[in-house]
Amino acid sequence: MSSDALVLTSSQKEIFEKFKAKVKDIIKPTHDDFYLVKWLRARSWDIPKAEKMFRDDQEWRRVNEIDKLVTSYEPPEVLEKYYPGGIIGQTKDGYPVWIETLATADQKGLYNCVTKKEVLRFKEYFAEKLFNVRCPEISKQLGKRIDMGVYIVDLEGLSLKHLWKPAIDIYVEMVATAEAHYPEALKSAYVINAPTIFPIAYSIVKPFLSEDTRRKIKVIGSNYKEHLLKEIPADQLPVNWGGTDKDPDGDPYCRSRICMGGTVPEKYYRKKMLTENNDLSKFTAVTVQKGSSLQLDFEIKVQKSLLSWNFFTDENDIAFGVYRKTSADQRQKATDMEALVQTERVNSHVIPEAGSIQCDQTGSYVVRFDNNYSWINNKKLYYLIEVVEPDVGRELQRLDSTDF
Predict the structure, then answer these.
(1) What gap in Å lies between CA 44 and CA 34, rounded to an integer?
(2) Is 356 a residue whose pLDDT tops 90?
């Protein structure tokens, strides 16, 4: 590693020296020039912005004891066994590879077991292991600096049911944390097996990604194995993704190193955990009177938009349905509208209800909460309804023609 040299232009060197002088009071012995320059690059060489980012990070690390995670943190068993992802192999130039299979996660099962804070802590722990343990190990082995990783996101099986509000909120916060506290840590990201709903999923996280990160994301189609093998040796990639690596028992997914998720057993469940994982400040609270209903109208202006819902009731069930108006000029009865989700009673007082539909047509859509069947109980309802329009930025690289 002694052969590595920080290559900067004369103007960059001047900015870098000024930056170091500004933050010298918080620089630690482990903060070498390669580490410090990342903060400037992440803020386009703007000294005040880079200084604020670096100081915010150091305070975050202090308050949350991030530097102690690797040695003192004990991950919850349910996350170790059922949260998808893992470090597997290295690229041809030595960068560690992380594979995550998002659709194999039992989202509701996991969030019945752990809080949002616990999930974030778990991901922070893995980030620390990757960048502060694994990367230094590889650097020592190869005799050169390795301080970035390659990320493979396998979206096989991803559907509307996975675009569940509590899970999305946590994933967005993971992305925001990575951008704020691990600058210049991504060498490249490959999205494989992208389904037709990928534009909606991407539009949700896109606002939290820096321009530099967006440029590093590559969406690969059906021949993704060929592309992955251009960067990753076959013996460093599991058989399932086009390589030759497998577990001693022949497992092509290398489950001994990559968690593949799966259904979470109810023995791990905690009461009311789903409600605790929701930010209730975003919910609207109403009382649906006995013998009545609540009808909420939403105008869909872009085809393929996502209409999602998340709701729960205090003590009793409620009926729920989603419709598309056949006449936009007037209020319609449920029987006169096109039913997209048939009205059915749901036990939203036991477990919060969440779901979504893709709106193939523009027009007026109705989310309906029905309490007409009850002549005794009013229902205290908390709901969050959102419309997300598809928006895949042109900065995404497509390595072949991907149909979504």
Answers:
(1) 16
(2) no
Q: Report the alpha-carbon distance of residue 279 to residue 168 in Å, rounded.
A: 12
Residues whose CB falls within 8 Å of the CB of residue 3, separated by 6 or more in sequence, listed in order: 143, 144
Q: Which residue has the higher pLDDT, 228 or 197?
A: 228
3 state DSSP class of 373 = coil
CA–CA distance from 352 to each of 105, 159, 207, 230, 278 (Å)? 18, 19, 27, 45, 10
**SS3 for 40?**
helix
Residue type, 401: S
CA distance 357 to 110: 22
For the full predicted model, state whether its pTM sits above 0.90.
no
Q: Is the dihedral of CA 184, 178, 154, 307 positive or negative?
A: negative
- How close are the terminal C-alpha atoms of the chain, in Å? 43
* pLDDT for residue 384 is more than 60: yes
Q: Which amino acid is at 349?
A: H
Residues 6 or more apart whose CB falls under 8 angstroms from that of 93 comprise none
Angle at 258 between CA 256 and CA 260, to 5 degrees: 105
Confidence of residue 316 (pLDDT cuts 50, 70, 90): confident
pLDDT digits (tens, 9 = 90+) for 263-286: 999 888 875 555 566 667 889 999
Residues with Cβ within 8 Å of residue 13, at least 6 apart in sequence: none
Residue 397: band (very low, low, confident or very high) from pLDDT cuts 50, 70, 90:
low
SS3 200: helix
> How far apart are alpha carbons 75 and 16 in whole angstroms?
38
